[in-house]
Amino acid sequence: SNFNKVLRQVEFYLSEGNLNRDRFFKQEMQKRDDNGIPIALLLKCNRMIAMNVNEDILKNVVEKSKILRLSDDGLAIVRVLPLSDFGPREKRTILVTELPRLPSGMAENVNENDTSQRSAKLCSNQMINISSASCELTDWIRNMFEEYGEVLYVSLPRYHRSNSFRGFAFVEFKTSKSARKAVKHMFSVVDNEHWLVKPTETSEVSDCPESAWKPRLAAKVSFSQQQ
Fold first, then answer.
1. Which of 8, 53, 71, 136 has the CA that lies 20 to 30 A from 2?
2. Domains of the chain (ranges, CATH numbers)
3. CA-CA distances (angstroms) from residue 151 to 15, 135, 196, 197?
4. pTM listed for this prediction
């Protein structure tokens, strides 16, 4: 239901996986004694706009959360527990390739994290049309790998020039055990590792000289090829 989608998304915004990357949100949290994130700011996030979330809906959703609560002044959302340290990220992250591609026009908001300072500024100036396909791809990957353990973050790299989705993803788990379990069940022979993901169209090669770029994290993470 839409209620559960909103709950899941706001819990993600304040999750360890997101806050360990989102410097903008961290800075906003430091402005409050309770380390909360203002409701007004959350409502400007791309996915909140896409789901037509208003202040009343957000407050009602948070009441059902086990990890979040409404601040005493009613103006922010606060974590119930402090942030945890799960250890080195590379030991909990796998690289997944052979994923379905998105047209270049759908790649703008393909990651779960749409809470950067840039996004907030865009939202304050205009309504942003969010591609449902990009959101669904992120959710699909998360749902698929949650079978093996709690997923903290899904990252879908893009070409810098065309902004097109590259066709592979980094999936960060809460524990290294879950990451190893995922690789074991979705195992790929080493000879079949596709480190270089070819562009969708030939013309994209000349437009994107970084098309042969190897993920910086790839050398340190486990590999799983989606069949």
1. 71
2. 2-79 (1.10.10.10), 89-225 (3.30.70.330)
3. 11, 16, 25, 24
4. 0.63
